[in-house]
Amino acid sequence: MKEPIFYLFNSISHIRGGGTRNVLARAKLLREKRNCQIYILTLNFDPDYDFIRSEMIRLNLLHPEIPILNMFEYLSHKTNDDFQTVTADDAPRIDHPPEEEGFDLERVPETNGYRLYRNGTLVKYKEYDDDGRLNFTDHFDENRVLVRREHFDMKGRVRQIVEYDRDTANPRQKRFLDETGRCFLEYRYNPKTKKCIQVDWFDRDGTLINTFPNVRTLKLHWLHKIADRHPKAIFQTDVSKKNTDYILLKVDHPHVVKVKMFHSLHLQKPYTYGAPLKEVHGTVLEKADQFDAVVFTTDLQKKDVERQFGPRSTFHVVPHCAPRIQPRPDVERDPFTCVYVGRFVELKNVDHAIRAFKRVVKKVPQAKLEIWGYGAEEKNYQKLIRDLELEQHVKVCGITQDAIGVFSRAAFSVLPSSEEAFPLTIIESKMVGTPVIAYEVNYGPRAMIRNGVDGLLVKPHDIGELADAMVKLFTEPELREALGQEARKTPEILSEERYVDEWMQVYESALRQSEQRVRVKKPICTVDQMEWNGPSDIHIAGSLTFKQDLREEPSLSLYIRERSVLVDEYFPLSTERLNANTFSFRGEFSVHPFTREGTWDMYVSCSIRNQHHFIRIPKGTVSLPERRKISNVLLKPYATIHGNISIEAKPRTSKPNFREKLTRWKHRILENIPPIRPN
After folding, report:
1. For site-directed labelling of 312, which of 257, 383, 591, 665 has its Cα 20 to 30 A away?
2. pLDDT tens-digit map of 456-469
3. Domains of the chain, earliest start first
């Protein structure tokens, strides 16, 4: 494939989670095995990308022949129109000690920050990183109001200056400086709305090159500049973020082929079908028509998305692959150590593993739990370990660049997340023969772990069951070994060759799809017949008329869903072309799924390649079936105030007999007799 592939990120670093690592691994494989032209695009301002690139290559995260193109490096003229670096940065590092002559210094407890006072008045605040490099300096006026912040790069040079509005404390201007201190870009803000209202881009000599109304327009300008250089180019987002997914949705360029990959669940709590949608995921799925390919890691997630948003030929499934690893004879497995590897965030429920371990050590006193990763919850984990007096058994170990080594020496690993799409940690653990204990949640654990075969699945949020599973693997080495042997087969199932082949098929399909995109307005539905066909089936027939001629037949099905909550059913429809823009449909559906109390609305689900419509079924002039009692529920087809067909389901109680009626009348009469008051 000669077309280049551009992976779009807001930012990238050598310290990242599984989603980013999966993208980088894919890029490396496609480069090595198919010689694909791969580029990483980043939109954020980070003056230290030279260091980030070198670290990612050193850690074998980034292929040396895959360039990282950053928008701000282009805007600062560090790279030319061919996106080649034209200025080398060999400047020495400038040190900025906290102390300054004429100022009194105060260190802020438990931070790397310092306050500087002059005559008792706060004038500056400096914050440093863990290596002693100055991150930024804040400047205050005589009323201790923040007026300016200066951001520094790793070499100690000012690279960004933010001016603040005194009344609102919001930014009013941002200036971006190159390595020589020259301003090449300026953002202007409305402090009251916090919105950027103008972007000015300058040449090396200070000449204004262009003005943009907002930052989004600037980003689109840069992406279009890249697309202009290629007859066809694949642009793909993997991490679901507003500043990448929404930007790609706005890209309107004839050369661009759009691909979206879902690395995470699209659902909020309780992470099951019908749950509220995550904001960015929901927006992308509602606009899925605009992508030439949408890729999921599991068939379970794809089916749930198709069920809620309608099927499309542009939906694909590509599970992650198991990377090849070298044997580690130097690593000895510890039968009494289990590990967690991942981010330290609330969603991962690492505290559940810690709490479960309080029960584990009572039965297995020599058991140990190692927690590897990074994130905001680390202090909470440390406190919980102290509160439960588990310091001798549970240890927070920090970041590891050798997850394979960590898994190789563990008896088993644990992943008590509330939701996972297709976690790399499960693959890495299984491929070295280390079984995984995980909560049985959507979608990854359910799809990746065969309970009792190559790992253990436990009821979500059941700490007691989690503890029992951990004790089981600590105390039953034969079971642990059997699970590990099956887990080692993961590389055979999720091979790199399969993975590369499937991604190439996705890209080739997307390229073809980009030449056949469908833009069809919602058709008009007409119903000719709707009647009972047996005790609990309804026959329906009608037609769809499109506003333009169609070259290919749509895929139609009957879709019925409850109005107040997302409970739904699909039924097949047979179709026949009547003319260039009209198709008839007919089918039958059982009413048994709709005996739950509620109002059930009827639609035709219509799919044509990348596009899908749910078309409400109107009553028109058709006679509706009579109401009927099914399973003690009265089902009544009716026309809504908008003229559409729905089915009302209400529980039906049996009519009271004469004796019951007489008893009710008696009670009503007695209730209405006033009480006799004593004299």
Report:
1. 591
2. 999 999 999 999 99
3. 5-90+218-317 (3.40.50.2000), 104-214 (3.90.930.1), 334-492 (3.40.50.2000), 524-651 (2.60.40)
